[in-house]
C-alpha cells in the first residue's frame, strides 16, 4: 500500500554485551542470540502497544515454527496474533544423506538438535495457543503448527513472486536447437544436485544438443564436476559458478526446464523460472510442492529413495523433451502460476487475513464499564 497513507515506523531492537557478538556466529551461538533477541523484541512490543494500541500483531522475523514469536506477547493484551509465515527447520530425509560427508552429517544433526532443544521451551506452546491464526509455507510446517496446538492454520509463501522480474532480463546466448535444463541456488549438500545430473544423464545419454546448466557457486561444485565426468557427460554440463544474481537470471530465462532438487527449505530461482514461463521439475516437498502443480510442471516423489527419484526425474525430463506442445502448455501455466503467487495476489490474501482476524477479535471483545476506545483500523505490529 501507499506508504503516505499507511506509513511504516521501524524501532531497532538488539541484545546487549556478549550476546550481541553472537549475532554473526553460526549454529548454536546464533540460535541463542536470536532467542534472546525475541525476548527483547517482546518487551519493546509491549511498550509500543501502550503508546499506539495495535490492531494486529504479526511474526515477521525468522520463519521458525520451533521458537516462540515475540509478537505472541501482545495476544495476552487482546491483540490478534498472526504467527507466520513460518516454514524453516526441516532436515534432510535420511535416505538422501549418503555421500554428504562427515561435515554434512554434523550439520544435519546440529540442525535437528537445535530444533528439538528449543521445542522444549514451554513458551512455544503458549505461543501456539495464543495464535489467532498460524501461517505456514509447506505442508510440513502446517502439520507442525497443528501439532503444537494452533487451531487455525492458513497457507502462504514467505514472500510474493515478482511477476515482472524477468521482463527486462536479457538472456544469454543459446545455440539453435539446444535443449537446456537449468538449476540454481547455492550448490550445497542438501540440494542433492548430483541426482539431477544423474537424471539428465539417464534421460539424454545418447541425445546430442542437450545441456545441463547450474547457476550459482557453492562447495559442491567440484563433486558435481566429478559426477559429470564419471557419467561421461562433462562436455554437456556447465557449472556457471558464483555470479551476480542478475547474471544467473539470464541463464534461467533460456531454460527449457527448470530443475529443483532441494531436500529441505529452498526455492532457489523457482519464482523467477515460473515468471519466465519455464516448466519446472521439482522434488515433491517444501517450496516445490507448494508452488508447482500439474499446470506448470512435474513433482518428483522422494519416498522411493535416490534411485527411484533419479528414474522419475529422468522420465519427466524426457517427457518434456519429446513433447513441445506440453512444454508450451506448462510454460503458459507457469506464467499463470506466477500471477497466483504474485505481489498483487499476496497483498490481497494478506489484507483479507488481517481483516478477518481483526473482525473476529472485535466480535469477541467484551467491554466492561463502558465503550472501549477502538484502535486505528490498521495498526500492525510486526516483530
Topology:
Layout: H1 18-21, H2 28-52, E1 56-58, E2 81-86, H3 101-118, H4 122-130, E3 133-136, H5 139-148, E4 153-155, E5 179-183, H6 193-204, E6 210-215, H7 221-230, E7 237-241, H8 245-252, E8 257-260, H9 270-275, E9 280-283, H10 286-291, E10 297-300, H11 306-322, H12 324-340, H13 343-363, E11 380-382
Parallel strand pairs: 1-2, 1-11, 2-3, 3-4, 5-6, 5-8, 6-7, 8-9, 9-10
Q: Can you walk me through this structure?
A:
- The chain has 383 residues and is an alpha/beta fold.
- Helix content is 43%, strand content 12%.
- It contains 13 helices and eleven strands.
- Helix 6 (193-204) packs across helix 11.
- The longest helix has 25 residues, at 28-52.
- The radius of gyration is 23 Å and the shape is globular.
- The model is unreliable at 366-376 (pLDDT under 50).
Written as H for each helix and E for each strand, in order along the chain, the element string is HHEEHHEHEEHEHEHEHEHEHHHE
Task: Name the overall outline.
Answer: globular
- Describe the largest sheet: 6 strands, parallel
On the 0 to 100 scale, the average pLDDT is 88
Which structural class do you get from the secondary structure elements? alpha/beta
Helicity level = 40-55%
Number of strands: 11
Number of H/I helices: 13
Rg, Å, rounded: 23 Å
Low-confidence sequence ranges: 366-376
Spatial separation of the terminal alpha carbons = 19 Å
Strand content: 5-15%
Strand order of the largest sheet: 7-6-5-8-9-10
